[in-house]
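Posting this for the archive.
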Amino acid sequence: MNARDENARLVIAIDGPSGSGKSSVSKEVARRFGLAYLDTGAMYRAVTWWCLDSGVSFEDHEAVVAATETVPLELGTDPDEERILVNGEDVRAAIRGDLVTDNVSKVSTVVPAREVLVRMQRDIIRDSGERIVAEGRDITTVVAPDADVRILLTASEAARLARRGRQLGAAASSNLEAQVVGRDAKDSTVVDFTSAQDGVHLLDSSELSMEQTVQGVIDLVIRATDTTYEGTTEAPDETGADAPEEARQP
C-alpha cells in the first residue's frame, strides 16, 4: 500500500448486520493496508462473558454498567493475531459460544453500557495513531462518524443465514435464525445499522465472494482518499464474504 504519507491518518469504519461479512472482511482489509484492526463486537461479547462468569444479573442494568466499566479486558489490534483476554484468561473461544451469543444483546441494549464501550473504542482508535479498520454495529454513526471512509456492509437475510450455517457446520445451533435475525432486531432498538447514513457507502455482499468483497472495500477506500493500493494478495478463504464473528474461533 502506497499513500500520500505512510503514517497519515486512515480510519476505515465498517458497519453491518450479523452475517454480512464485516468481521472477516474488515480484518483482511486491515491486513492489506497495514492497519490496526478493532472488533467492537468482541468487546460486547467479552463484557457479556464477564457478567456471566461474575454472576451479574442482566436484569440489573446498573450492575451491567458497573461490570462494563471495570471489566479487566485486554484486546489486541493486530489483524494477524487475535488477542482477547479477560482477567488474564483467553476467552476467544468462549465469547463465540451459544451462551454468550444468546445473552450479548442484554449488554448491547443497555445504553449506558454502550456509552462506556464507545469511549473505550474511541480510545483504541486514537491510540492506533488513527490508522485502523474498526468494525461494529454503530461504528459509522456513533463511534467514528468522522472516519475517512465509512461503509455499511450488508447482505440479504437468506445469504446471512446460509453463511452462518456454513461457518458453524455441524456445530450450527438450532436457534440460528434467532441468533442472526433476532439479535439484529434487538440491537436495532438502540442503534441503526441497517441503513446507510449520509456519507456512508453501501456495499451489498449477498452475491460476492470474500475476495470480491475485500476488493470492493479497497476500491471504496481508494476512491474516497488519496490512498493507492498495490497488491493482489487474495483473501485466505474464497467461500464468500462470510467468515465473520463465530468463524474466528481458534
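Confidence is low (pLDDT under 50) at residues 242-250. Strands lie at 10-15, 36-39, 73-75, 84-86, 89-90, 131-135, 149-154, 201-204.
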